[in-house]
Design brief:
By secondary structure, the protein is mainly beta. Helix content is 6%, strand content 59%. The protein is built from 1 helix and 25 strands. The chain has a 25-stranded mixed sheet that branches.
Length: 297
């Protein structure tokens, strides 16, 4: 009996030791020469994807994954650094990737494709950035995009802040679109039922379409090109800089229109013109049942 108890205790201790040696996560770090890379292509399922500029002389990729999560592959081909999971469909296991690049390094293109992972890009210069997200949150901060920044998301919040973008496109199914302190020649937003919020905007023109979500915009500088907003049941609330003129053209089926600058109001209307200070920039507002409002700060 004593021998049997000794064997059982030894087995339990061995099992505990073996279990303790299994890591909760695995961390892999790889360094690359920045001169070899002009494009980034990241394809991940679940976790977090973060790309940021730091004080470094190399491009550093750090992958952190749960011990039983699918492994990731990294390779350089024709100037493109690709970072991908081998089993993209296994989105239940968390895999994080952090890409740190030297300040001043400019990319030709950055692409991230994620199922439920969150994507964050900070302090980056790139000609083009394309973000596709299934349900994760997307955050762009302090970036300079000389051509096109394009974001598509299903359910997570899509944010662009403190950035300069030549052409900005944000499409959302149900998540909120939040754009703050962005300079651009054109901002184009589209949403099925998520709200669209623009703050401190310096845009030459804007175009927006929403089904049931609301559109709220506050401009720091006046748009100088024809712009438009269309909603179905969502409200439209636009604030222009104080004293700037415009020519609003409003179409509403059952909604209400209120221009606080001209005191023009309407319960329903077709091609109603509300012109402020002989402004020539056309701002077209169309809604079926939502309320549309224009005001100045």
């Amino acid at each position: 009996m004593k021998k049997l108890i000794t064997i059982i205790l030894s087995a339990l201790l061995l099992g505990t030791a073996l279990f303790a040696e299994i890591p909760d996560e695995e961390i892999t770090t790889i360094n690359f020469n920045p001169d070899q890379i002009s494009k980034l292509d990241i394809n991940f399922a679940a976790g977090n994807v973060k790309i940021q500029a730091v004080k470094t002389n190399e491009i550093t990729v750090t992958v952190t994954r749960e011990y039983d999560a699918p492994s990731a592959t990294t390779k350089i081909e024709k100037g493109t650094l690709s970072i991908k999971t081998k089993l993209f469909s296994n989105y239940k296991k968390k895999i994080d990737v952090l890409v740190e690049i030297p300040f001043g390094k400019e990319f030709e293109e950055i692409k991230t494709t994620c199922v439920s992972a969150n994507s964050t890009i900070k302090n980056i210069d790139s000609k083009n950035i394309t973000i596709t997200s299934g349900g994760g949150k997307v955050t762009i901060q302090n970036c300079n995009v000389s051509d096109h920044l394009k974001i598509s998301g299903a359910g997570g919040q899509l944010s662009v802040e403190d950035s300069k973008v030549f052409y900005l496109t944000v499409s959302s199914v149900g998540g909120t679109t939040y754009i703050d302190d962005v300079t651009t020649s054109l901002v184009r937003t589209e949403s099925a039922n998520g709200n669209i919020v623009l703050k401190n905007m310096k845009a030459k023109a804007f175009e927006s379409q929403s089904a049931s979500g609301s559109f709220e915009a506050q401009f720091e500088t006046m748009p100088v090109k024809a712009s438009w907003v269309k909603t179905s049941s969502g409200n439209i609330d636009i604030q222009f800089p104080k004293g700037e003129g415009y020519k609003a053209i409003v179409n509403s089926l059952n909604g209400q229109f209120v221009d606080n600058n001209t005191s023009v109001t309407a319960a329903s209307c077709e091609d109603l013109v509300s012109q402020f200070k002989n402004g020539e920039v056309e701002i077209k507002l169309s809604t079926k049942s939502g309320k549309a409002t224009i005001k100045s700060e």
